[in-house]
Amino acid sequence: MKGLLRASWLKGSFARGVLAIGGGTALAQLVAVLFSPILSRLYTPEQLGIWGLFVSFVGLASVATSLRYEVAIVAARNDEDAMELTHSSLFLVLIISFLGALVFEWLRRENALGYGVFPPLATFVAFFALISTGSALVLRYFALRREAFAVVGRFTVLQGWSKVLLQVILAPFGHLGLILGETLGRFVGLRWLFQGISCRGLRFNLRIVLSYWTYPVIQLPSSFLNTLALMAPVPIFAYAYGVAAGGALALALRVVGIPVGLIGNAVGDVFYGRASSVLRSEPRKLPSLFVGTSLRLGLVGLTLGALMWFLAPRVTPWLFGPEWSLAGQMLGVMAPWMAFQLAVSPVSRVVFLSSRSWLKLLYDFTSLGVISSPIWLLNEYGPVQALLGVSLLMAGAYVIYFTVLFVLVTRLRYEIREGA
Fold first, then answer.
1. Which of 353, 345, 388, 383 is nearest to 370 (CA)?
2. Angle at 274 between CA 271 and CA 276, to 5 degrees
3. pLDDT string in tens for the chain (420-residue length)
4. Alpha-carbon distances, residue 212 vs 68, 81, 258, 353 (angstroms)
5. Residue 52: CB partners within 8 Å, gap ≥ 6?
6. Other Cβ atoms within 10 Å of 112 Cβ, number
7. Dist CA 17 CA 2 (whole Å)
8. How many Cβ atoms sit within 10 Å of the Cβ of residue 297?
9. How far apart, in whole angstroms, are the C-alpha atoms of residue 10 and residue 291?
């Protein structure tokens, strides 16, 4: 009876964690949706475009601000290593944010990729934006290790609302108001996250950084490949089938990103924190946690996928207009991809807990190859047929990756037992 009660409590705790993070993400996205009509009237399309350019730079550069050591915080062997990694990662954030600001300034002076539109002040703003974003990543993973999921959820809500409200207040400053509101809002949320987990101090431990060397060497390239794979579909389809096809796919990806972002990211965060804790205390339970979480996500993914397959081609033209019928067809054929992504991607973070994290790098190369297949493999088909091919190939890649991860989880359990 006690065992059953304990299992029930674990499930309830897991669900509460998912609701805390997922609910926070939903509320943060809600304010962005509600204030979009206001921001579109306060700022011109050109100003919003400059802000989008700024956010794109910060989003891509922030991947490297702590050299992916933030992921190692959750996987650390003990709490002392986790704390040392946290402090060292925050130190790295300062250094690499400065280097990132230098890159931004070079782009601005050379007018590369359109960055010449920014005034000199934007370089300093980019520096602080990188600091706030990188620090938030580090502290977020530290909170996940401690399973402080409510703290992460509240931080996400506060950050989302602060950014939008500050952008409204700073509207008289034009595009600077947008990027200043974005940056200052990230600091407001960051202050809450610092207080929530009581993490203070800043020092750099070379020994601990060198002992977790695989994260910058393997996970950093993997993260860049993953980011590239996320950005690649639209330009690839625009190149292969025209701008209209690229635009339709952009809308389809945005719709698909809603359940994957809300459900997948929330479950992924909670699963990673819980898996790390289970591995340290009761490693024999890790496979059941891995499989059980994936099966539940799979049921959700298959349900949503079936609805997408049958309803998207019919509902999309009615909802967005007849000119978006291609987007509806694309949404329908993306159903297998979305279903298997939702089932496997959140639990794939378990690879970071092992010494074989290079498997993620192999998957990222495979994923990028599949996504680019409309150019080198599926170029004889139309956009919908090519996307269906990509969707089925990605679903197959997720099945193979899940199998590899299951074997890895089983071996990881025995490795921990033997080490003990």
1. 388
2. 105
3. 344 334 433 455 676 777 766 666 777 667 766 776 677 677 776 777 677 778 778 888 888 899 989 988 988 888 888 888 988 999 999 999 999 999 999 988 988 767 788 888 989 999 999 999 999 889 888 888 887 777 777 887 788 888 888 888 988 888 888 888 888 888 886 776 665 454 555 678 888 888 888 888 888 888 888 888 887 888 888 888 887 888 788 778 877 877 777 788 888 888 888 888 888 888 888 899 999 999 999 999 999 999 999 998 998 888 777 888 888 899 999 999 999 999 999 999 898 888 788 888 889 999 989 998 888 888 888 999 999 999 999 999 999 999 999 999 988 766 654 444
4. 10, 10, 34, 11
5. none
6. 11
7. 22
8. 24
9. 15
Instruction: For residue 74, give the nearest of 126, 139, 123 by alpha carbon.
Output: 139
Structure-token match 């400053």, residue found = 173
Looking up tokens 């601990």, which residue turns up? 208
| b/e map 250-265, b = 16+ CB within 10 Å | bbbbebbeebbebbbb
Q: Whose structure tokens read 């409510």? A: 150
Task: Write down the pTM of the prediction.
Answer: 0.78
> Which DSSP letter does residue 369 get?
H
